[in-house]
């Protein structure tokens, strides 16, 4: 059984990179004109690893994740189970935390995964925040669609009530047609796949990381 339910490993890695580059503006947006949704996964890792903007520790995280990606791809493991992940948890965790931590260090507000219980009149009865360690924090009331602690200027189109939503198809395409390589490109989602992920209304990258933590806790 997969440690991530129906989450596809390769989709999760792709979405985590795209979200980090385009939503979290990794390194002040240094890669928004270099990594696009058509960029092959290995090429994206190589761009990050080869950049002088990326620290030595961050490069080590990307290199470790790239090795795992290639290993799972070579073994056709798209939905790894706990056995597949043994010995890899620290690499996964570092990869999941790298982009949000960079954004926080630059003073950017990073919203937690948030759910809200609504009253019949449309007001918020309760706001529930899922913490990084898998625990939850409950807050009475709240503002519809706004996580607790969000700044007044916070302007995030994500859906908070059912979890933050990340749409890879919203990431800009390369101004030039993506070149072909021997690496597997970030796959183009079919309409049914898009509908399936949208129905969950859940940030795919965050869902991947939380499922990973849950598998080991």
Description:
Residues 169-202 are annotated as: Disordered. This protein is mainly alpha-helical. The protein folds into 2 domains: 9-109 and 201-216, no CATH class; 117-163, no CATH class. Helices cover 42% and strands 8% of the residues. It contains 8 helices and 3 strands; from the N terminus they run ααααααβββαα. It has helices spanning 9-23, 26-29, 41-50, 56-74, 82-85, 89-105, 191-200, 204-216, and strands spanning 113-118, 124-130, 136-140. The chain has a 3-stranded antiparallel beta sheet with strand order 1-2-3, with no helix packed on it.
Please provide a brief summary of the model.
Residues 169-202 are annotated as: Disordered. With 217 residues, the chain is mainly α. It is built from eight helices and three strands.
